[in-house]
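Researcher: Here's a chain I'd like modeled. Treat it as a single chain, no partners, no ligands.
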Amino acid sequence: MTWLAGTASYLHHHRDLTHGVVGAPLLALAAAGALRLGLAGARFLPLLGCSLLGAGLHVLMDLWTSYGTRALSPFDRTWYAWDTVFIVDPWVLLLLGAGLVAWRSPQLARQLASLSLGLVAAYVGARFLLHAQAVATARERVPRAVRLAALPHPLSPLRWRIIADTGPDYWIGTLSLEGDSPPLARRPKRSETPAVGIARRSEVAAIFLDFSRFPWLEVADDPEGTAVTWSDLRFDQAGRAGFVTRVVVAPDGRIRSQAFRF
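Model: Modeled as a single isolated chain. Structure tokens:
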């Protein structure tokens, strides 16, 4: 429903109350109640247990990713992301999908489901260890980093995308745990201007900058004044900026327009 108020509203409320320590259990309670009404003879407590487990696993799987979630909302609206598993990880989908192959045979389906869940747990656990190794290696390469992330590759657990923030610069590149990796590329940050300061106070920019761990700033002339753009380096792919906020500031300091896009 938050889409109806625009993409910025969606980002502002996405993975917030519904994914927090209060909202997720309440949704599980509502789901269990709905199932109890729809399933004749079903017992409420087992349904509630399954619903709570499902809600908890949903939040946990969001935490695995580089997108993250606000698991402590409404008490703390900080975004938490463990950067361990790709947002839509094909190996997790493949392993979970394999557990559905024998759905017509309940006994075989249970065995395959248990095996699939065990393999997913082992895969994610291995990724946690490899992520820690990638972070440690990256810190050796950029010892002055005040903020650093090793982001997962969609296919290879041995390849990680490194973003290191040293204050005046970003250092970006790919790290391979199999052997030698190319040096990280330096990207100097742009100096802020008065127009950037005004743009920061816009509603859309405030939402975006609260979400973005590695915002990349660009400033350009616009027919209506100055266009201030931020993108999130976590989601840049093949030269295409992802998660972009654009604010146009008029010469008199007024905000002419503000927009956010995925």
